Amino acid sequence: QVQLVESGGGLVKPGGSLRLSCAASGFTLSDYYMSWIRQAPGKGLEWVSYISSSVSTIYYADSVKGRFTISRDNAKNSLYLQMNSLRAEDTAVYYCARAMRGGQWLRDWGQGTLVTVSS
Amino acid sequence: QSALTQPASVSGSPGQSITISCTGTSSDVGAYNYVSWYQQHPGKAPKLMIYEVSNRPSGVSNRFSGSTSGNTASLTISGLQAEDEADYYCSSYTSSSTLIFGTGTKVTVL
Predict the structure, then answer these.
(1) How far is the C-alpha of A112 from the C-alpha of A39, rounded, in Å?
(2) Per residue in A37-89, pLDDT tens?
(3) CB-based contact A47 B98, cutoff 8 Å
(4) CB contact under 8 A, A47 and B57
(5) Which residues of A touch B (CB under 8 A)?
(6) N or C: which end of chain A has fewer CB within 10 A?
(7) Which value, in Å, is the radius of gyration of the alpha carbons in chain B?
(8) What is the b/e burial string over A87-116, where b = at least 16 CB atoms within 10 angstroms of the residue's CB?
(9) Which residue among A60, A61, A105 sits closest to B36, beta carbon to beta carbon?
(10) How far apart are CA A52 and CA B91, in angstroms?
């Protein structure tokens, strides 16, 4: 069955960096768009970014553009999110998800990894 | 871009039907048939319930149905059950090639 496992979360100071990973199994990663979504404590879902199967198409939410970079390694069945210049408002659980069509909806989700930005 | 607008809470008794609305604009909900709905229980990851406005993934009960009218999408849960108590989020593809989520609705089974 499809499994997505995020890792790399933790406590980081404002202005710091963190790299999240998402290990995929149960499907061929190279066939699918993938996405990152986050959820601040007690708040709603916020889409962060998606990347096409061939890496030719990448989009970001305005709130992270220029600070976050999504990437993938299909050979390693992994998705990544490099987060730089972190702010307190980036504190959230970060989920990776398998996206369908051209990233228009999210079929499967990981359990999430918590990122806390605090001094 | 602001989040899609959903009611903060909706409640119903077991066996009843409830409907959750999701209001967007002509640049998202009204522009594409790419509205999806997600169910999230406390402390859990979201789960896809409806995709492309009205389609159910395998394994999702047929008590869940979706529709759109203009810039507003709706999720209806019929025959409400205790296990349906959760948060529900709509999502839409946008004309900027991004995704946008709704503000979320807490469903309470009385």
Answers:
(1) 9
(2) 999 999 999 999 999 998 889 999 999 999 999 999 999 999 999 999 999 99
(3) yes
(4) no
(5) 35, 37, 44-47, 50, 57, 59-62, 95, 100-101, 103-112
(6) N
(7) 13
(8) eeebbbbbbbbbbbeebbbbbbbbebbebe
(9) A105
(10) 19
